[in-house]
Structures are given as C-alpha cells and as structure tokens.
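Hello,

Our lab assistant flagged a job as stuck in the queue for most of the afternoon. It eventually completed. Since we weren't sure the result was trustworthy after the delay, we are filing this so someone can double-check. Below is the sequence as submitted and the structure that was eventually returned. Let us know if re-running is recommended.
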Amino acid sequence: MPELPEAELWCRHLRPALVGRRLVGFASAQPGFVRAPLRDPAGLAAAVASRAVTDVERRGKRLLFRLDDGAAITLGMGLWVRLELRSAPLEPLKGAEVEFGPAHEPAAGSVTAGPRAGSALMRLSAGPSISLPASRSALTAAPAAASLFLTITEIALANVRLGRYEPPAEPPPFDALDPRLDGVCLTALGSARTAVKAFLTDDRYVLGVGNGYSDELLWHARVHPRRPCGSLSQKEWAAVAEALRAVLTAALEAGGEEGFVGPDGRVGTYARLTHHHGGEPCPRCGSPLGSLMAGRRETNFCPVCQPL
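-- returned structure --
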C-alpha cells in the first residue's frame, strides 16, 4: 500500500514536471475511479478544462494538484496505484490518464487530436502534442511545448476527486514527518484506550502512516501494536516518535518500499523487516514473528521484543 514515503516521492517528482502546465485531457476506463463528480470522467474533464497547475502537494498519503481557479484535484492512493509520467498516451488505456499540455497559450489555428475511442478523453486546449520517445531520459529533458501524460494504473481502491482547495488545518492531524510530532506531542494526542497502531494510522491524529510502515516503526520502537496508548510511558512515546522519523526517512532515501516504482522509473529498495513476514525469524531476536488480523488487515510483530 502506498504510504507517506511513496506519496512524497511522487510529489517531489511531479511538482517540477507539472507546475505551470495546463490540463488538456482526462480519460478513465474505470468510471468508479472518479468520486467527485461522482463517476463522471467527462464532467471532471470539462470542469478542469485549460486550468493550469499551480502546485503539487502531499497531504498525508494523498496528492493534491492545485489549479489556478482555486480548485484542486485530489488523488487518493487506496490499496494500490501506480503513477507514471509518459511522453505519449498509454495504448490501450488502462486505468486513467491525465494529459498536461504546454504552459503557454498555443498559436491560433493549431490543430488538436480528437478524443480517444471508447474513453472520456477531452482535448480542450488547442495545439498539437509533440510526441517524444517514451523513455525516462526523454521526460526529464522534455521541451515545454510537449505534452506530458500522467498514467494512473493498477488501481485498487484508489480514487480521484475535484473540489475547492482547502489549506491544511492547524494540527492535529500532524503530518508524520512534522518535527513537532515528538514524544511529548504523541503522549498528549493518544487516546488512553486506543491501541497504539490504530492511533498511528488514524488520520485524525497522524497523516501518512498506514498498515505496513506502522508495523515497522513499532517493531523498531519495541512496542506491541495492541498496547493501549494510555499504557505507554513518555519514554516509550519518544521511542515511537524516533522510530517514526527513522523508518519513513529510510524509506524515502531508498526510493520507497520494494516493488514500488516511482514516476521516474526508479525501483524502491526499502525492505520491510516485519510486515507480511509472520512466522519468519525476528531480525532482532530470532523468535517467530507473530500475526494477527484486525479490520481485515494483517499486523505483524515480535511477541518477545514487543510484549503486550
């Protein structure tokens, strides 16, 4: 599941590539992927016609594409999704695709291509798309006059929404990489009876941590995922805060978890030590890692290193 490191890597790569460009088209082979306007890819395309991207932000595990009319397109990662920047459209279309044209206004009389058959693609800004070799090196050197295509594939519970841009509220919730999120802050935030893993993955308090990375950071902090928040000492909360920063920073530096592919084609190398490794030896003490299910999600931990 893409979490904060993967979303942050996408954000860092997409921002310089897309800011200043105008939306030319949107296509979706899965209408249910569009949540606002509800299951209406054509309506979304019409609503953002010729809008320019002013910024790309990360909000927890979500990406926000800010537009010059005060709106924003929000991409929720869901269970799994893959993004790729291309210099040519994906044929055949799988999932969804956004075309970003040049930032400048095209010359009068330019010819546009028609809509792709069987899709909701709407080319709403004049000017031809310049086809580049579909290679990663070509994308980094793509001229401003060329279109870029953001393909969104391997969609699992992911979604896209269009709405007014709302600036982030004063925390809570805190971004998981917010330096203010230390042991003292976590001690004050944690609800006494709530399990620590449920707390860390609750967007009302902490943004960006999901099922997988929460297992990793709690293993590093030697805290059982089902410990009630009220049972943790401030020293233990400090260990959780330190592990939170260390694990997410390591994953960022590794290009995301193993199997993750960034928009630039870089493959992540961060190897999770506990999540989905139930029954295998604990990397620290050698005891078999435990597994439990909560809300149809697997949780892994060491019963020796992380006593309940």
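-- support follow-up --
The delay was a queue issue, not a problem with the job. The result is valid. The radius of gyration is 21 Å. Residues 106-138 have pLDDT under 50 and may be disordered.
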